[in-house]
TrEMBL record:
Pfam families in the cross-refs: Acetyltransf_1
Domain N-acetyltransferase, chain residue ranges per copy: 17-164
PROSITE patterns attached to this UniProt entry: GNAT
Alphabetical list of CDD domains matching this protein: NAT_SF
Name of the protein: N-acetyltransferase
């Protein structure tokens, strides 16, 4: 198993913001930040088709908050299957979207969010993280296209931009097929809350 730094190891890396677990109160500001950072076309991406109607993986949605309570960054991870091997599905996580407020770009906040998300995913016992993004940027975190050679996204995608990081060595070896969502549906969570009330 590959060693990953504790998520708390990065706590002082960006002094103007703290990374916390996302709450429902963060969601409106998160959506506004994503609209500003990625534009209106963000909901038409293949990754969004996997996330639509689902909840992030348990304990793996994070917000970067300023001391005044304003949200300046976000990252989420989602439960998926990374195709299958030997007749069994391969569990993994899909990371994204990752975004920071325009006035914090170049401060290291995006890297801090990535490292925090990776460390937390490892701490939760997950085997691999997949994302669609700039391979040159994500290579610094250990993400490689070689790990996704047998995988595809539902809908159009650029194969070179489909990259993965194994948290457990060999987790994606031999995985082939289309990436699919496996996480909880948002409506199931809403119904569970209603029944508990």
């Amino acid at each position: 198993m590959t060693a990953f730094a504790s998520a708390t190891a990065f706590a002082d890396a960006v002094p103007f913001a703290a990374i916390v677990e996302e709450t429902a109160a963060h969601v409106p500001a998160r959506e506004a930040l994503l609209d500003a950072a990625m534009g209106p076309g963000r909901t038409r991406k293949s990754s969004e088709a996997i996330r639509a109607g689902r909840l992030p993986a348990e304990g793996l949605a994070f917000s970067a908050m300023r001391p005044d309570g304003s949200l300046v960054g976000t990252v989420r991870l989602w439960n998926i299957t990374a195709g299958s091997k030997d007749g069994a599905t391969v569990p993994a996580l899909l990371l994204g979207p990752l975004a920071v407020a325009p006035d914090t770009q170049g401060t290291g906040l995006g890297s801090l969010l990535m490292r925090h998300a990776i460390a937390e995913a490892a701490a939760h016992g997950h085997g691999a993280i997949i994302l669609v993004g700039d391979p040159e940027y994500y290579a610094r975190f250990g993400f490689l296209a070689e790990k996704t050679a047998g995988l595809a996204m539902p809908g159009p995608f650029e194969p070179r931009r489909l990259v993965a990081l194994e948290l457990v060595e060999g987790a994606l070896d031999g995985a082939q097929g289309v990436i699919a969502p496996t996480g909880r549906f948002a409506l199931e969570e809403t119904a569970a809350v209603g029944l508990a009330a």
